[in-house]
Amino acid sequence: MFTDLSSLSAQSEHHRAELLADAENFRLARLVRQARRRRPETPRSHPPQPDPSSRNDSAERRYAVSR
Description:
By secondary structure, the protein is mostly helical.
């Protein structure tokens, strides 16, 4: 049985190119998934402010204060 070295070389180069493309697609898909997970829902520069009507006034009365 004879093997054509030039066709084997072309097939291996084609297979190598396909594997590299698959690896690049996998890498990019992983980066996209990581970026979606890290995306904050609210900007960190503006933390949510507590509602003034739900203030805990009893926290100030917790300790005895001399008058």
